[in-house]
Design a protein that fits this description.
Elements: E1 5-9, H1 15-18, H2 57-65, H3 76-79, H4 83-89, H5 92-95, H6 101-106, H7 111-123, H8 133-150, H9 156-171, H10 177-231, H11 237-266, H12 268-297, H13 299-304, H14 309-315, H15 325-335, E2 369-373, H16 383-390, E3 395-397, H17 399-402, H18 405-426, E4 440-443, E5 460-463, E6 468-471, H19 480-497, H20 517-530, E7 537-543, H21 544-553, H22 561-568, H23 572-582, H24 594-611, E8 616-622, H25 629-638, H26 648-666, E9 670-671, H27 698-720
Parallel strand pairs: 3-4, 4-6
Antiparallel strand pairs: 1-2, 2-9, 5-6, 7-8
Helix pairs in contact: 7-9, 7-15, 10-11, 10-12, 11-12, 16-18, 19-26, 20-27, 21-24, 22-23, 22-24, 23-24, 26-27
Length: 721
């Protein structure tokens, strides 16, 4: 092992001055970017780079412009050439477009009807329920058809009539003329038989009534006879005659009723019931035939069945069992005129102003020099050699890198040494670094960072759809290990099961893996990263109305236990903890059922009472579920924005960097291109003094490192199988 330190500048043009070995002489043609034999050329095609017009252009342009995407405008063969990309693009947010409520209003749409349409749209699932090419086509068509049919409605009743049609089409019972005629004939015959059965029942009911009356008359006479006998009195002949007559009448009425019942059971009524059963089965056969036909012929039927459970509940809003209670209330409000204006369509939300140190954005530190200590002497002479060494699917470079032989050489060689060191740490063969040839690598070819990543994200990213790690030309070094773990996290299920991969991560859902050591290792890693006794600092908002509500309920003379608890708490955290105890909740838990609204109401009161600003505002408090310090700090990094640092796969990738650097250091080794600055001491803001903590530290770091040791061992066992 070469223990020499190789310090390399982040500017690859200084490489020749800092390299541990003198550069080898190569033919000039191999260093000419214009030559067909250029040694740092792309080794193959990787879809989705900035050098090409992606097949997704139609969809993404429409989304940007707020336009609807029609199924006929999509080149489906081209899109489905990459199923991962197709799955990512065929979503409601990409295809649906903006609804022009102003134009619909001008065309006569009533506000109540518009409100219901908006609620229907909100219930549509963001992606088809099935991950299949035909399902994506049908889903896209369904979005188009749903909008076409709802946006011609004017009144609330028009919308409800459309929903009734959708229910039939969802069930697939939309009939053609011949089927409708068959059903009409069957229903007419059923009605006729129903009338006959009702007549039999009427006669039987009258016979039973007559029997009950005769029985009552007999009982009166019988009691009189029994009373006289009990006292030893003589029964008069007239009374005896009445008793015999009443008994005979009762017996006759009973026999008549029993006869009718027997006839109903074994005779005419049984025959009618058999005919009704036959009619029901014939009708079911017609509907089954219609469903089978609609499954093939009706794209809208297929589409409705792909739009998610929330839409199903909306369609059956009248059902107490499978309907949406919330939508039923929306319907009631719209029908009774409570939605009388278009205020529901306003999107602006006023918030209390807040200026705190958390408004300062965290930025990852970027290295200006890269050092490597120890490790194997691995120097590929070209991108083709890099691909062969590690079994990569392909290697791609952006135009800037392709025109610069020094940059091409720098990133190719640094990637090779980083992957070699990573293979040593993981205890796997070099060619296993590519996850079975699934992973590709790009240098400066694919943008500046992962979609959805915050400003502080490393200037490298892993693309789920195209399964490629991109390292930017100037600032991508130091994050290769982070992005490689994303690839492992995403591809491991496919590696183990052999089934087509998904867009999910094993750290987020270990249950995707088969039972065994690997699944257990991912579970243990997740627990190690998230469990602890810390609580995140949250920013809670309250309004002036909340303050008024609090002043009415929390007074010096408050009598209720909860009001006194809120009043006497020294701070909001103590008050919220007391509320959770009163309602029997775990930290961060919200009760279900009737207790939910009661709990949330008192929580509003507690926040406003301790907030202190009569006009409303925001207040910081440590509350919520117990978690690790690593996760609590990630919550702080996310602030009020979209979760990024708290995503479990992002936490895992950052923790993996910490493991890389710690385990290399234990061997007296270092590789800054693989991972750099994975220690919180490097992330103190010099201007504000804020101590950002994106990486695990202390005892938690040791515990998480041990979990990664277990995961590496499980991966090795998996590769042996």
């Amino acid at each position: 092992m070469n223990q020499a330190t190789i310090a390399t500048s982040s500017d690859p043009r200084q490489l020749s001055l800092l390299s541990a070995e003198p550069p080898k002489r190569v033919p000039l043609e191999l260093n000419d970017p214009k030559s067909a034999n250029y040694r740092y050329a792309d080794t193959g095609y990787i879809a989705g780079s900035r050098k090409e017009e992606a097949a997704s252009k139609v969809i993404l342009r429409a989304k940007k412009e707020g336009l609807r995407v029609h199924a006929r405008t999509i080149d489906w063969d081209d899109l489905e050439s990459n199923p991962r990309e197709a799955k990512a693009l065929i979503t409601k947010s990409n295809l649906f477009g903006a609804v022009d409520w102003d134009s619909l209003r001008a065309a006569g749409l009533e506000p109540g009807a518009g409100y219901l349409i908006d609620r229907v749209y909100a219930a549509i699932g963001n992606e088809p329920d099935q991950d299949a090419p035909q399902a994506r086509k049908d889903y896209t068509f369904g979005l188009q058809m749903l909008r076409d049919r709802l946006e011609v409605c004017k009144k609330v009743d028009d919308v409800l009539a459309a929903l009734a049609e959708f229910r039939e089409e969802f069930d697939g019972i939309k009939l053609v003329q011949q089927e409708a005629d068959e059903i009409r004939i069957l229903m007419a015959r059923r009605e006729e038989l129903g009338e006959q059965r009702a007549e039999l029942q009427r006669v039987s009911d009258e016979a039973y009534k007559a029997y009950q009356e005769a029985s009552a008359n007999y009982l009166v006479v019988d009691r009189e006879v029994e009373r006289r006998n009990r006292r030893g009195w003589k029964v008069a002949p007239e009374l005896d005659a009445r008793w015999k007559s009443a008994k005979a009448v009762e017996k006759a009425r009973q026999d008549e009723w029993v006869s009718l019942c027997q006839e109903g059971k074994d005779g005419r009524r049984r025959g009618i019931d058999e005919q009704l059963t036959a009619i029901r089965r014939q009708a079911e056969a017609v509907y089954a035939r219609a469903k089978a036909r609609n499954l093939i012929e009706s794209r809208f039927h297929r589409a409705l069945n792909l739009m998610g459970g929330r839409l199903v509940k909306v369609l059956w809003y009248r059902s107490a069992v499978k309907g949406s209670e919330a939508f039923a209330k929306h319907v009631a409000a719209a029908r009774t005129g409570l939605v009388a204006d278009w205020s529901w369509a306003e999107t602006s939300v006023s918030r209390a102003p807040r200026v705190t140190k958390e408004s300062v954005r965290f930025q990852f530190k970027v290295a200006d020099r890269y050092a490597r200590v120890g490790g194997r002497n691995v120097i590929p002479g070209s991108t083709a050699e890099l691909k062969e060494m590690f079994g990569l699917r392909d290697v791609q470079s952006g135009n800037w890198v392709l025109r610069d032989v020094v940059s091409g050489k720098f990133h190719t060689e640094q990637t090779a040494t980083a992957f070699a060191d990573l293979a040593d740490l993981m205890g796997i063969a070099d060619r296993d670094i590519s996850h079975g040839g699934r992973l590709a690598v790009a240098f400066g070819a694919r943008g500046k960072g992962a979609t959805g990543a915050k400003g502080g994200a490393p200037m490298a990213h892993y693309e789920l759809i195209h399964r490629v790690v991109n390292v930017t030309k100037e600032k991508g070094g130091g994050a290769l290990g982070h992005e490689w773990f994303h690839a492992l996290d995403n591809l491991i299920v496919e590696i183990v099961t052999g089934k087509p991969g998904s867009l999910e991560f094993a750290t987020a859902n270990p249950e995707m893996l088969p039972a065994g050591g690997l699944r257990n290792a991912f579970r243990e890693l997740r627990v190690a990263m998230t469990s602890g006794n810390h609580q995140a600092t949250q920013i809670l908002t309250y309004t002036s109305e909340d303050v008024k509500l609090a002043s009415r309920n929390v007074r010096p003379s408050s009598a209720t236990k909860i009001a006194r608890l809120i009043r006497d708490a020294s701070n909001l955290g103590e008050a919220l903890q007391g509320l959770e105890q009163v309602f029997g909740l775990q930290p961060g838990q919200v009760p279900a059922g009737r207790s939910k609204s009661n709990y949330l109401g008192w929580r509003r009161i507690a926040i406003a009472h301790h907030g202190g600003n009569p006009d409303g505002g925001e207040i910081e408090v440590r509350c919520g579920p117990k978690m690790s310090s690593f996760m609590a700090e990630a919550v702080k990094l996310d602030g009020k924005g979209k979760p990024y640092f708290t995503e479990i796969y992002e936490m895992a990738a950052r923790a993996f960097q910490a493991w890389i650097e710690d385990r290399l250091a234990e061997q007296g080794r270092r590789n800054d291109y693989l991972s750099v600055f994975a220690d919180n001491k490097f992330h103190i803001d010099a201007l504000t003094g804020i101590e950002w903590k994106p990486y695990p530290e202390g005892e938690e770091r040791q515990r998480i490192n041990a979990a990664f040791d277990g995961l590496a061992a499980a991966v090795r066992e998996c590769l042996k199988a």
